[in-house]
Amino acid sequence: MLAALLTGSVLGAALSRAATTDLADKPLANSTTAVLLPNIMLDLDNSGSMLWSYMPDYVRMKSGNTWEKYCRDTDGSINAVCNQGDPPYAASAFNKIYYNPAVRYEWPVNPDGSRVGDATGSHRTAYGSPWSGIPSDGFGQQRVEYTYEQTSMDDPCGRAFGCPKKLPNDTVNLATIGSVTANFPDRVWCRSSTSSTCVSAIDGGNYSYPNDRYDSPRLATGAPYYYNVTVRWCDSAGSNCQANRDNTHARVNYSQWERVDIVPSRNSYPKAATRTDCTAATSCNFEEEISNFATWYAWYRTRSQMAKSSIGLAFKDVRGTPKDVTVDRTDGNYFHARMGLMTIDNSTITVPIEAFEGTHKQSFYTELYKLNPDTSTPLRAALNEVGRLFKFGKNAAFPNGPDPIQAACQRNFAILATDGYWNGNDPLHINDARDTVMQDQDGDITKAPRPSYAPYQAGSRGVPADVVSLADVAFYYYNNDLRPDMENIVPSAGGAANIGDVANHQHMTTFTLGLGVDGTLPFRKDYKTAKAGEYYNILQGTRNWPAPRENTAETIDDLWHAAVSGRGTYFSAKDPAALQDSLHQALGSIGQSDGSGASAATSNLQPTPGDDNIFIANYRTQAWDGELSAYRMDTTTGDVIGDPRWQAAVRLRLKVAADGTDTRTIWTSDANNNLVPFTTTDLPDAQKAYFNATVQQSLSQFNSWSTEQKNAANADTLVRFLRGHDPMVTVDRENKRLYRERDKLLGDFVHSQPVHVGAPPFKFQDGGYDAFVTAKAARSRTVYAAANDGMLHAFDAQTGDERWAYIPPMVLPDLWQLAHNDYADRHRFFLDGALTVSDVKIGNDWKTILIGAMGKGGRGYYALDITDPANPRALWTYTAADNPNLGYSFGPAHVTKVNNKWMAVLTSGYNNVAEGGRYDGDGKGHVFLLDLGDASMKAHVIDIATTAGTKENPSGLARLNIAAPDFNISNTGVAAWGGDLLGNMWRFNLTAGTATKILALDSSRPIMAAPDLTGTPDSVTVYFGTGRFLGTSDLVVPSASVTSQIVGAFKDDLQSTTTLSLDAFSRRTMSSSDTSRDISDAGGTSTVGWYFELPGAGERVAVDPQVFEDTFVVPTVVPSASACQPGGFSWMYQFTTSGGKPAGNTSLGTRLTSPIVGMTVSLLPSGKPVVVAVTADGKRPKTIGLKKPTQGGGGNGGGVTTTRLQWRELGR
Fold first, then answer.
1. Lowest-confidence segment of 56-60, 538-542, 1161-1165 by average pLDDT
2. Taking the model in full, what pTM does it have?
3. CATH-assigned architecture of domain 10-17+595-656+745-788+827-1185
């Protein structure tokens, strides 16, 4: 969703202003000027265990509890006490919530990002010397636990008492050694309850006490401290150990103990890279260390404190209603939402869902920081109440609303955060009268894989039979239409139907967050994409979800299961950093939606059974990844049917192994156009430098990296990431991730259409072509697709396997940006332009070449020889570094013969002016002819320049069409026609090298789309449409006074130098309604041409129109002010070529609910032509039958002939 609000007066100014062209870095077709924010309810645990100062639960348990085995002596025997004062308890490697010197503990914030004042009378926002009066709870809400009455070390505390406890005081002095009741407590082990012969728990670097002699704990005065310790988890024999705990490795082993006291006499402490509060390069001084410790003590020492501080920090940059770009240019970089807050008892804290701004955001923070845990853990009832809020607009917490759902397309989310096992509150009521009880929702809850998305059907109960699980609750509110009275138009977030958030009805998507808790299933952060682990086994049907019962570890598995059933994500956070990161990831996922941005490709323009593939590329916003899918086209109807035959991103995962190896073939090319493997071993030094450690200092996450991560980050790790690996990430080391997390390895496919290449399809009569066709008749079919991962991918058309990928060398310098952790907000295009494939004769040899445009990815083109799809060759690149008059290459290359030479015909594109101190282009429109047979082609480029455009107001000539009357026989180009953004249509005589302005409109009617052509070599009819859809300023729905865009046609005799205006055309009138378009006036007597004004407000032509036989097909886009139509909607018109009447004498236009982003014309075996229209919503393409003009349907105005002058080969 577009963050900036644009006013209705902007469009007219945008279309006529003298400035460079606004080019968006994200797909416009998924954007809107209207604001409809997602609804998010944070359902937060306020149970009593949130008061605990240890995490996970096994750190400290009561005597006799089976979990107690995790706190052990070095001899392996069970230690009866694991409490405050014991080394494991005070080691962050084991107790994840205890002070960790590698973490910079951030002070909690107010909604505006300023520091919260603590609960002391002075409301401090920082702690300093003498480090006294540090509050036990900076928020001033949690009760302080009582200690046992001890005034000196001489008074023993019984072993069962577990001293030291929290002090009864509200504050503590951290630095001055004094009375026990005023300072940080410490514990020692004594010979007996009365003896003063005592030792600390550490002896000789080992955790040695208590033992059979020193077994009586006592409280001592002390200063803050922590333990450095290596923690390993071992099997029952103790011989096989690893870093993470699982069911097999369930016994803890400690080694390499070191106690660190934070005392004034010590002024040097180890510094981690994350400790940006320390000024020295390698160490922190006493004041820096004790300040960090004090912040932890006041704001992070318990689960509740950690949750409140971390949530406040994570949500500080969430905003409500987006701001106009003129008010805040940075606003578009922020996540915008409507948010509310509930606690799991549904009543203690309630903040309704509203735009997250102003007094509402302040209320959210106030209520969050007031939380004082003291209840049970009724998670199922809590999630049920969130679902009821979305279903009925009210619930127990909000009995009178307000209703959060504002529109039918609004997305609704629950984030359930808890630290414990669920219990209580069963049965669950699901109707408004609260007399209908929820039943099992997905059959046997232990079965796998997950159920597909389908209406609920009563089935066998899960095991155990009396349990309605948390997963049932999540699935109920996902699977059932919560608002049957609303249209089902919620956008899909993508993914497979059985596990993805693909429902279009009103539903709740559930994210769950486990705070320091473990179930019986070992969790891995990348569970959604991993090809191993318990979740993968569940999907494969070789593992079952454990059956949950209250107050058992299986309920944590159910917490995970609920996120799967609710189509969200499960996160497990055991420290403040992980908690903030989990919340950021959840918010990032909430912003995702599916989209498509280009036409589909067919395996044959005349599909037949067995040769009926259609290849569809799409993308996901926020994740910014893509998928290329092969479907089957019904050869009777032209519809796209069935499940995908293959999906390339799914196949690509199989080529990348978890051990850091892969079987991918990825090339770039060097200065001599030699293919170079994309590995640090093979890249030339100059290219390798684009990925080195210095470059990576510009990554958004660099300052948060540890020393280990900074030392690990080098060119090899980044190159391997770009190849599809996650360096530094294994099952045991997920917290070491260097670069952004990805679900898929393919980049987003937005504006670049895939191209299918098989046997040569032409009938060229040039010498040797017949032999070439015969030799390549069985050529392996390949689909080529350019993605915004910077790669041109070549896929086996039969299997979807990637054959190879190619990175044009001009992309390399910026490719590191793909590794930004916050790439969701930094998206840019890399390879986003059209692909052109043609057979050409170079010297004595026929070749099949591919030329790719970069689109917004850059100012240039690249070319490959793909004659052999298994062994491509790099041919050349042509960029602004070669010719400064080359702008952003949005137009496809054309390949034709000019003066008996095979030429690539390129355009100057958009913004061909100086940029960043380079490329001093003149801003005029240019057409460039490159001789494909000339090894020094760059030195002999033919430049045909127009007279329009300046450095201040560039022409914007991007898309052409070429008249080649005998295209399939000789492909000899006569002339080219193309429009610019200043409203001019140009004829380019390719043979003579001249440009003639043949139609002058003005900049209020820019010509973005390429015209189509019919006629003879002596008389051409040019079919065109006006309008622009390139930048965010083009999203505005203009007022009625703004000039309407037009569709028209006119004749050109190829000789005239007269510049036409619309005064010479017949003006036709179109009538319109919300559902149909017709012609109300087809009058006019002009023999020059005709035109219609498009009736929709802001309606424009942004996709190339096409002529097929006698029908002129024109797709338009209408930006919408409705939030439920991001990008707007489209009309598909069908005119007669001979007179501009409705083809078939039926309704002129078909309305589509999403913008058309591309179309492909196919001829079915029956002879019926169809248009396959791809829309921006990412749904299956819509098939529209082409209407045959009725007999006598002609008329005056440019209708001499409808012989097509060039067949644009879209599929082969």
1. 56-60
2. 0.74
3. 7 Propeller (2.130)
